[in-house]
Design brief:
The protein is of the alpha/beta class. Helices cover 44% and strands 9% of the residues. The strands form three sheets. Strands 2, 3, 4, 5, 6 and 7 form a six-stranded parallel beta sheet that branches. The protein has a five-stranded parallel beta sheet with strand order 10-9-8-11-12.
Length: 480
């Protein structure tokens, strides 16, 4: 079955299920009543950002030298690396050089720190915590990415273990700083532990993530403009071409006017290939994904030892746009919902999301909301596109990510910090429900609603080994 045929088949399934839903009077959960509840903001959960003014930071009298870090991965992985780099500089009493962002091998984006983040704000917020410089002084100008790529260098720290302790840096990096005045750490992704770290260092990481790291002004300005257009959409003279959700649209929609939900549709080619799941594209798709897996992931797709049914029942398959549409509809979202689609490239292109767009006709994205002039500022820059999506996601009434990942984790943490509603799909439950070919809509709706009652932003305290960037309490938050 080709991708186009698969999408058409999925559309038919959608309409069949939804027609049954709205014709049935036995459904336990009315989409209209569920919709009114789902927009309700979270109650105060007894936690709030800590008051940093109580503990005035002090800048070390003498710097031990310069710390360079080279960060790979996407925007959100780099964001966490920046937070950790500040923490390591504090541990070592070192001066941090603005982190170097490696060229992303997938998105081919060469954006620098200063292209993405407001560097002056970053330095100003942290000026009492650590010393930060935009570039090395002339005497150390030789310490570049190219210099370390040519040979083994005494000033490069290459063996930093994943989740290294603070003591590891004091024992292994501090001597290099004291001998050469500089140390370059590469790679630096996930190179500082989340446990057994002094509380002032944990608080500093939180300060970087939630206060110091803000996007450049033109991203914030564009983000504010798109948010305004989502909250205050221009009326259209065109009538909706479909009415399959019309029956559940409440007559008093005004109470939810101006609200919108962000859907991070994490269904790109990399995600599809890495999951080792089958997405209905037939033999051609399987061969194409297998080839792509070998080229990009080089045999590291361990899930391939399981059958597709096993992967789905374990929640290891990313949800397709069609499946996400069913989840949203079951939770009560309808054709009055203003939906912002935060994604880079969807595997399968426009045909893949056409069904979702028909189901939610008020769905917008960067292309539909921004003018060609506005888009030109960030065209071809995956990091800036992701930054714009992140900014809009933080300011939305509800955020939902179709599948776990770095952006999902970062936004779950950020929105927890701000006490904002965030729906975390129960991947194992959804996989099992989609495998059931005989389930009627009322059963499906009941199972979805019941399975997500406690997955809508309820605060969860961080457990050992978990990231403070995903679970900011209790390290970044204090009891109110």
């Amino acid at each position: 079955m080709t991708m186009e045929l698969y999408c058409r088949a999925a559309t038919l399934v959608f309409f069949t299920l939804l027609s049954f839903s709205y014709a049935s009077s036995s459904s336990m959960y009315s989409p209209t009543s569920q919709l009114s509840e789902i927009w309700t903001p979270l109650e105060n959960q007894g936690w709030k950002p800590c008051d940093e003014s109580r503990n005035k930071p002090t800048l070390p009298e003498k710097s031990e030298g310069y710390i360079q870090v080279f960060l790979d991965g996407g925007l959100n992985q780099q964001r966490m690396g920046i937070c950790d780099a500040v923490a390591v500089a504090k541990i070592l009493n070192a001066t941090l050089v603005i982190p170097y962002l490696e060229l992303n091998p997938v998105w081919r984006d060469s954006s620098s720190f200063m292209d993405i983040f407001d560097v002056d704000h970053f330095i100003d917020v942290l000026k009492d915590d650590i010393s930060i410089v935009k570039e090395l002084p002339e005497e150390y100008s030789w310490s570049t990415r190219e210099y370390y790529a040519l040979a083994i260098r005494d000033t490069r720290i290459k063996a930093a273990p994943v989740h290294a302790s603070a003591n590891w840096y004091l024992e292994n990096v501090l001597p290099v700083l004291q001998s050469y005045g500089i140390a370059a750490i590469s790679p630096f992704s996930h190179r500082l532990t989340f446990d057994n770290v002094p509380m002032d260092i944990q608080h500093l990481r939180c300060k970087v993530n939630f206060q110091a790291l803000v996007f450049v002004p033109h991203i914030r300005t564009l983000g504010d403009a798109l948010i305004s257009r989502l909250r205050n959409p221009q009326p259209s003279n065109e009538e909706m071409s479909s009415n399959y959700l019309q029956e559940v649209t409440s007559s008093d929609d005004n109470k939810n006017a101006g609200k919108f939900v962000v859907l991070h549709l994490r269904f790109d080619k990399d995600m599809a290939a890495h999951s080792a799941c089958d997405f209905g594209g037939g033999k051609a798709e399987k061969l194409a994904l297998a080839k792509y897996r070998q080229v990009i992931w080089q045999g590291r797709v361990l899930n391939s030892q399981f059958t597709d049914e096993e992967l789905r029942s374990q929640g290891r398959c990313p949800m397709t746009p069609e499946e996400v549409g069913l989840l949203l509809a079951a939770m009560g979202f309808d054709n009055s919902t203003h939906l912002y689609l935060a994604s880079h490239k969807v595997y399968g292109g426009g045909a893949r999301i056409s069904t979702l767009r028909q189901l939610f006709p008020l769905m917008e994205d960067k292309k539909t909301l921004a003018s060609s002039f506005e888009r030109a500022q960030i065209k071809g820059k995956a990091s800036l596109l992701a930054a714009l999506d992140y900014y809009i996601s933080v300011h939305s009434d509800i955020f939902i990510s179709a599948s776990p990942g770095n952006m999902h984790n970062a936004l779950v943490g950020h929105r927890t910090y701000l006490n904002l509603k965030t729906i975390r799909p129960n991947m194992a439950l959804m996989g099992q429900l989609f495998l059931n070919k005989t389930m009627e809509w009322s059963e499906f709706e009941h199972a979805v609603v019941e399975g997500h009652e406690n997955r809508q932003g309820q605060l969860r305290l961080r457990k050992p080994k978990q990231s403070i960037y995903t679970y900011p309490a209790p390290d970044c938050m204090c009891q109110a």
